[in-house]
Backbone:
């Protein structure tokens, strides 16, 4: 493996847009694009959510976050008012709403109608957002598909006008890609302008980053995740002049590590964090087991905030998490459970000892500092100007989490191990995925296993969106079965996938899809393959649903039947691929054998 960063390869374009000019443009725009009225600020008599967070921390109040974002703006508005009111009546409070915009809202307004739609909110104009945020005195947090997308600047203007003082998501900048959009320089330019606009408001606006949406979900070492926080602070606070509020939690499924990470974060930043995301990867199909996971992390996150207030609100995740986006009743229910759990836990402090967690936090911080330093030094040695935010952001985004960790991870080098290193403090998700894959293959019928192994198959594995764990699982399984893997990419477009298959050759495609776009993607892929004279089996798994056009609930429905009709092999479970692979293997071996 090449052990260096080379500017010519990472930033091959001769000239990049000037960072200083972009930041200046964003700062000037603050004169005309300001903060709109806010029911939340008025109700609590604060200037910004950061102010409110500091006040809650001083009072020992644990804040609560609810995630909403229905496709239909009227339903989103209703949810904003109704969830707050129902919890208020029960004696509880929603402090903030995370509003999940739709995938298609990440494009410039003129392109949106033509682009693939996901499962989030689609608004027509800024007035839709303002009407929604006026529906209850909860802080509006725009953490999805704003900063980090081609529409970063225009969406930041709209979210500020809707009274939001917490706007993101820098984490998404590094990992999310809008389908059919290849211009990452434009995404970087729009994001820089957006961050400068937010940073130049007369009140404090937090630039939010969910590190799990960013690189943390793919790092194998928690020290690298903490290092990512330090690098983002360098970008936002040193180079742009704003404040970055961090979020973590989706993939932090082990209680001690989750708790220790919160304490590690408190040692490296005093900017209030935005939220601790609920541990979504702990959720599966069994609601009873999900309820146990819920009470586990809610207690822990509340304790963490009571002991060391870092500004993050707690996000209880509805029990239906693994099925689809949740409906209003499910959000209210889970908040009632969470509030009551926290109430029952008091007094927290008397029952806990933090010695072990603090030792872990110290290791994570020390490793994180080494990682951040090594990344910045390594990029500088490769010719990247690490004090130029355009160059730095692009270089990090293009290098990606895996290679950054391989090159600069703080863990001792250990060939053969994931990322070639022994982590300072192992993160869990990716290793769990590999272990699951290995377990599935070990249980497979030996005859079928051998049939597949001897056939010398090649499989092209890809995802339609950022969700990559399914792909890792499939690759682990195929690798153990002796199938050669062609990497079809992550967040790939159908034409590019068909092109890869045409170029590299494959016996089948294994596709993972989660964002509600599977059906359109598959149909397009089939067309693209036909145009190239290719006819291959396509196995598809993940979250196979979509919101029907004209839906009056804004909730997705299953599309397994339609996918099968369109020619795919629908896999609800990883085991569903084995029979089909056996058939392909038998045919291939039969063809290869002289009769
Ligand atoms: C982890 C996760 C994330 C991580 C992904 C990290 C990463 N790098 O992979 C992060 C935090 C980044 C993320 C982001 C988002 N997420 Co998400 N995420 C999840 C979560 C918690 C787990 C999904 C997962 O990877 N599971 C592990 C896999 C291996 O298991 P599995 O899904 O059960 O799959 C089984 C089978 O389907 C099969 N399988 C999967 N793929 C394939 C392929 C083949 C060929 C085969 C044979 C089998 C197979 O293998 C598995 C075992 O049997 C789910 C909720 C949940 N608990 O399921 C939401 C979920 C998928 N996410 C969702 C959403 C909405 C998003 C976002 C749009 C939200 C946002 N913040 O903006 C973004 C995506 C943006 C984008 N650009 O794409 C929704 C999808 C809604 C829907 N379709 O109804 C879900 C369901 C959560 C929810 N209830 O709202 N997410």
Residues:
């Amino acid at each position: 493996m090449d052990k260096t960063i080379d500017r010519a390869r990472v930033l091959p374009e001769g000239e990049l847009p000037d960072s200083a000019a972009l930041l200046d443009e964003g700062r000037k725009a603050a004169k005309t694009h300001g903060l709109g009225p806010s029911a939340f600020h008025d109700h609590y008599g604060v200037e910004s959510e950061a102010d409110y967070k500091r006040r809650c921390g001083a009072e020992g109040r644990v804040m609560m976050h609810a995630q909403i974002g229905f496709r239909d703006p009227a339903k989103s508005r209703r949810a904003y008012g109704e969830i707050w009111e129902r919890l208020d009546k029960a004696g509880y409070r929603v402090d903030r709403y995370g509003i999940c915009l739709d995938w298609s809202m990440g494009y410039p307004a003129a392109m949106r109608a033509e682009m693939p739609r996901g499962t989030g909110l689609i608004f027509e104009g800024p007035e839709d957002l303002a009407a929604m945020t006026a529906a209850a005195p909860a802080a509006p947090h725009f953490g999805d598909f704003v900063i980090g997308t081609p529409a970063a600047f225009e969406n930041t203007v709209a979210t500020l006008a809707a009274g939001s003082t917490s706007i993101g998501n820098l984490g998404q900048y590094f990992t999310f890609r809008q389908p059919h959009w290849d211009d990452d320089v434009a995404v970087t330019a729009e994001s820089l302008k957006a961050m400068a606009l937010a940073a130049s408001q007369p009140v404090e606006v937090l630039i939010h980053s969910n590190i799990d949406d960013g690189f943390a979900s793919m790092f194998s070492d928690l020290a690298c995740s903490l290092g990512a926080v330090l690098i983002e602070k360098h970008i936002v606070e040193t180079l742009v002049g704003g404040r970055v509020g961090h979020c973590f939690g989706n993939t932090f499924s082990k209680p001690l590590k989750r708790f220790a990470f919160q304490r590690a974060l408190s040692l490296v930043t005093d900017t209030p964090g935005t939220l601790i995301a609920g541990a979504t990867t702990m959720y599966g199909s069994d609601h009873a087991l999900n309820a146990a996971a819920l009470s586990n992390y809610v207690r822990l996150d509340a304790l963490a905030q009571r002991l060391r207030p870092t500004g993050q609100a707690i996000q209880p995740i509805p029990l239906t998490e693994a099925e689809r986006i949740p409906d209003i009743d499910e959000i209210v229910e889970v908040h009632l459970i969470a509030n009551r759990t926290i109430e029952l836990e008091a007094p927290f402090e008397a029952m806990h000892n933090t010695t072990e967690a603090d030792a872990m936090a110290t290791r994570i911080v020390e490793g994180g500092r080494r990682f951040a330093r090594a990344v910045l030094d390594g990029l500088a040695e490769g010719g990247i100007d690490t004090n130029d935010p355009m160059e730095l952001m692009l270089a990090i985004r293009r290098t990606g989490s895996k290679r950054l960790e391989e090159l600069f991870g703080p863990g001792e080098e250990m060939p053969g191990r994931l990322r070639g290193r022994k982590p300072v403090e192992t993160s869990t998700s990716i290793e769990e995925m590999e272990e699951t894959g290995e377990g599935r293959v070990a249980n497979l019928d030996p005859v079928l296993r051998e049939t597949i192994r001897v056939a010398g198959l090649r499989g092209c594995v890809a995802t339609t969106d950022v969700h990559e764990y399914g792909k890792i699982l499939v690759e682990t399984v195929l690798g153990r079965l002796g199938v050669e893997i062609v990497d079809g990419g992550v967040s790939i477009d159908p034409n590019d996938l068909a092109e890869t298959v045409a170029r590299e050759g494959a016996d089948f495609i294994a596709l993972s899809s989660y964002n509600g776009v599977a059906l359109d993607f598959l149909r397009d892929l089939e067309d693209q393959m036909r145009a190239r004279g290719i006819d291959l089996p396509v196995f598809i798994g993940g979250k196979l649903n979509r919101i029907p056009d004209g839906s009056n609930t804004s909730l997705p429905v299953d599309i397994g039947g339609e996918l099968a009709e369109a020619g795919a092999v629908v896999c609800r479970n990883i085991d569903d691929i084995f029979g089909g692979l056996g058939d392909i293997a038998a045919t291939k071996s039969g063809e290869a054998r002289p009769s």
